Every structure is written in structure tokens, then in C-alpha cells.
Amino acid sequence: MIDQYKRDINYLRISVTDRCNLRCQYCVPKEGFSLIGHDDILRYEEIIRVVMIAVKMGIKKVRITGGEPLVRRGVIDFIATLNLIEGIEDISLTTNGILLEEAAERLSAAGIRRINISLDSLDPEKYSRITRGGDIHAVLRGIQKVHEMGFSPIKINIVAIKGFNDDEVLKFAELTLDKPYQIRFIELMPLGFAGMENLGKFLSNDLIKEEIGRHYELEPLEGDRGKSDGPADMCQIRGGAGKIGFISPVSHHFCHSCNRLRLTADGHLRACLLLDDEIDLRGPLRTGCTNRDLEALLRAAVEKKPVGHQINGEERHMKKCLKEMTSIGG
Ligand code: SAM
């Protein structure tokens, strides 16, 4: 599927739920928010139908996300079924890692070898604070387990937050000295309910890179963009076992190479993470649409992809992304 700006759209990110077992301060309000009703969440068989069509149209890579995907009942069997669809070259998972230790064996059997784990602090008290009660030890056990099982790559995603984890940048980077992990710093985006607050806590990846560069020699790596490293600008500490990635959706847009479509938990196709302009699939799926109709809707979503998003850390653009990350799927 080639869009009007000649980008090959071959990557589908699927949010299987908006529920989460954490309440990260920049992502979910303290009191929670009105969750999508059970009936309004896309059923697995509906997602599979969409994926089968999308794959015929050129989607090759699928990522399962949420909310927290591992809290949705049956998700691992669903992944195993997805894995049987001919034409999918890669299935990966984004998780907060809380349930990873117990899920790892079954995930592996279902065909997951590549995993992204979110971890915004290495300090147990700070981790508990930012996630409102999360147990870092569960996440660390999960990471250790998938490492021992040979998952690769293991990507650890850190959302950089001014005044919260800027003092941990080096510690995170140093994890790559002897572990083959990819440590990826992600810029905080002004999305949803926390948009304004996030704007004030924005920390540019240029500053993080500079800080690491003051202590270690950072060698740029030739990124495998769109495949394994995605939109990350990849580096390595000289002699390190792992890699460091910088994902900078705010300070350095990578829209020109964006190859993604998103399927939200409530069954909408979203052409750009940062634009609330979606196409409803759930309605048509539940009122007897044909595969041809679905193809047309997928094509329409690809046509909707903008040349780029407008978020650049300025307040005046905030109104454009009101939907919460948990239902879009980060
Ligand atoms: N529960 C899973 C997890 O924690 O990885 C998957 C869903 S979560 C929404 C996906 C990623 O989005 C997480 O790494 C989270 O930190 C990130 N995220 C959430 N809100 C964000 C924001 N406003 N800016 C940047 N990243 C954000």
C-alpha cells in the first residue's frame, strides 16, 4: 500500500485493549477514565479478519500493543493464530513487563521473539511513583527471563521526563555496556488528558544524547529503519554489548519514513498517531461488510496519512490529539 507521499505502508500496530494494570502519570489519569465497553472492543476474530485482508494488501509487520496487551484474556492464543497468517513476516509485542515473566514461555511458543518493554525508571520507588503502584521487580524478572530465553531484540523503552528521570539517563545507557539490550529514549508527546502537563515535562533527545556523550564515546550505527530499529536513531557506546536508540517524534519528526497504520482497541483505523482522524471498521464489521468493503476502508485510511504531524512541543497544536494513548496503542 503506497500512500500519496510514496511511503510504503507495511506495518500495522494493533491495540487489543485500552485496559492497563498500571496508571502511568503521563498516560492515564489517577482516577482512570471511562474505559471502552466490552462490546465495543474489537473481538479477536474481527481483528484477524482485518489483518488477513491487510496482509494481502501489503502489511508485513504487526505489533500487538494496548493498554497492556497481556491483561486481555486469550491474547497469547490470539497471537499464535495471527502467526499462522501467511504473509506476516514479523509479529512483536509492546508490554509494561509486569506479567511478562509468567507469559514468556507461552509467548515464545506463540511465535513472539521480539519484544519492547516500557521502563521509565530503574529506581523501585520512582518506578512505583510514575506507574502509581507498579512493582519494578516484576518487570526486571520479566526482562531477565526473556533475555535467558534468547528473545531478540529486547528493546527497553524509556519515556524521557524532565524532572523525573533525566538523572537516570546514564544508568540506562550503561545497561548496554554488558547486556545486548536496545535502550530507547522516547520523547514525551503531548497527548490526551495529560497533554498540557506533558508539554511542560518535555525533554529533548538531543540533550540526552549530549549527556551520554559527555561520559562515553557514542558511535552512530547505520539504522535498520522500518525493520528492526524502526524510527530510532541508533548509536552504541564504543565496545558496548547493546545499542542505544533515540526516538524523537517531537524534536525530529520521522514522518517521511512512517510506514504505519494503527488499529485502535475500539476498532478504528488511525492513519497517524498524532491526528484524531480515524476510520471506523467496527461498525462495518458488525453490519455485514464484505472483504472488498474492508479493503476500501483500509485504502481510505492509507489515503488519510498526512505528510507529517504538527506536534512540535507548542501548545497551539495540542487540540489535534485528544484520544488517549491507551486506546490508540502506543
Ligand atoms: N502497556 C504497554 C506498555 O507499557 O508498553 C503498551 C502500551 S503503552 C501506551 C506504549 C508506550 O507508550 C509505553 O512505552 C508508554 O510509555 C508510551 N507512552 C504513553 N504515553 C506517552 C506519551 N504521551 N508520550 C510518549 N510515550 C508515551
Can you describe this structure?
- Helices cover 31% and strands 17% of the residues.
- Strand 3, helix 3 and strand 4 form a beta-alpha-beta unit.
- The chain has a single domain, classed as Alpha-Beta Barrel (TIM Barrel).
- It has 330 residues and is α/β, with parallel strands linked by helices.
- The chain contains 11 helices and 12 strands.
- The structure holds S-adenosylmethionine (SAM).
- S-adenosylmethionine is lined by residues 20, 26-27, 65-66, 68, 94-96, 118, 157, 159, 186, 188-189, 191, 198, 325-326, 330.
List keywords for this structure.
330 residues; alpha/beta; TIM Barrel; 11 helices; 31% helix; binds S-adenosylmethionine
Provide a compact summary of the structure.
The protein is of the alpha/beta class and 330 residues long. It has helices at 44-57, 75-82, 100-109, 124-131, 136-148, 169-178, 195-200, 205-215, 282-286, 291-303, 325-328, and strands at 11-15, 61-65, 90-95, 114-118, 154-160, 182-187, 218-220, 233-237, 243-247, 260-263, 268-270, 278-280.
